[in-house]
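S.,

Sequence below, as promised.
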Amino acid sequence: MIKGLKICGVSDPKTLNFILNHPHPPKFIGFITNYKKSRRFIEYEKLKKLINVEKKQVNFTSVLVNPTDEILEKIKLLNFDYYQLYDVSPQRTKEIKLKYKIKIITAITISNKNDVIRYKDYLNISDIILFDSKGYHKSESFDHNLLDGVSKKLNKMIAGNIQIDDIPNFKDKDYIIDLSGALEDENGKKDINRINKLLSLSSRI
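The prediction came back faster than expected:
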């Protein structure tokens, strides 16, 4: 069975409050912290205020693409449990983890089988490995069958344009499922009804 859900790209108090108070909240909520190309990006002052709430049992995750020392210093006291890192070397990942005493989700972007095995470079560093598409903010897909050879012991998360109706297909997989674009309306805003459908559906799987 799936190991939980992550809802990524939350950027407003109404949506965050709905998720946190849902009868079946996700395990993780992601906030786009430094990637300005994403429509889900949140400016620092807004982010600081947004996540200054009671998280209950949900893990708040800062999504960071090749973060500078400047941004890491800026966010180090914010209400985050995990840093989700894209385009960060194993050595740099280790430095970040040790310096900021934070749990790490390493994002491996996938287009072929050779990309998948890069997770092995992070095995002793990262708490979770996220397998994602090369699309970053564009909600692109990749062939999830490429992950069939990945160790079942690995604590892993999967993303890449996963839709709500795809969730039952993962019921026999040991993944944390990460969704973002599937939960947005035509204007790119998080849709409460879609979020409710996802959380209610996952509670029955």
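The longest helix spans residues 90-100.

Coffee later?
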